[in-house]
Amino acid sequence: MATLSRPRLAITVLALLAGLAPGVRAVPGAQAAPAACADLAPIRLAADHWIAGHGSATDSTWFNALFIKGDIETYRRTGDSKYLSYATAWANHNNWKLPTNAPNYDGPEASQEYLDLYDLDPAHPARDIADAQAYVTKQTARVQGGKVSDLSYVDAVRLGALSAFARLGVPNHNQAEIDAMAKMFAYTEAHIYDRAAALWWRDSRWVGTTQHWSRGNGWIVTALTDTVAALPAGDPNRAHYVSLLQAMFAKLKATQQAGGYWTADVDHPSAYPAPESSGTSMYTYGLARGIQLGYLDAATYTPVAQRSWAWLRDTALHANGVVGYVQGPASHPSQYQPISPTATSNYGVGAFLMAGVEASKFTPGC
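Request: output the structure for the sequence above.
Response:
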């Protein structure tokens, strides 16, 4: 297995200059916000509440892996090593392996969190990402053998770890992995992308309808956002993925509700009018990263991200730390309706943390 190259990581001095809270130490890879950042409190509240109720000895299925993604981003933003320790304990508990009993392509999500942890700590041996690499290698061989249709539903684009192909292929100069990623995604785009609406059908059952599931489109946003960040500026796939994100966010800007959220059915908010926080969180994450990476216009989209983060922070998050309004495990808008203000889940909290970390970078004082 080729060894993944990575940038030299140093202990951040920004966190020290900003002043760390008692018990918080600067550690490799952290880019802590100033201590005065008002958004750190709600981010910590949500993360700490979930962690307090759930030990790190959870499995590596996507439900838990998505929380770990948010937990890792919380570590990056706060510089507090307890969040990194929680994520590392989770990875160690699972022996850095992907789940073996996950249906379809729901299992590979964890490879992306393993890669995050590997990148953060130069002390990790290459064997910690061996299972992630084995998955990408096996999938690349499938594509080379003519099987390109595996990511046939929107969840699979994210949970099937699209970004892992770029994150492993680019630094290792493995063009075959980049090509495999592009071919799999091209199949998905050709079959379930509603170009007229600039949104995605969940799977072939909904093709031709006007129903575009909120979290389903969130899966696409998070997958493409992280893949774009991993690809070099001149990569033709990157340019295409950016164009898709730009079209999606133009549509999402137009369908954002006055309160700042999106409902489970993006195009028909009156059908299921309850706010939905997991899709809203994923859009907020993509918006904020897209602005930072320069492919979304800041003047146009910063207010959109700020409105959605304000709703997540002030309404979806409860005073006790529960992140509510999370639609349960679903594949279309009508499931788990009406969505309760206290309905929560590990993946919903993880998405909230991802959104908060990125959106907080636009908050004054942060």
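The CA atoms of residues 45 and 321 lie 5 Å apart.
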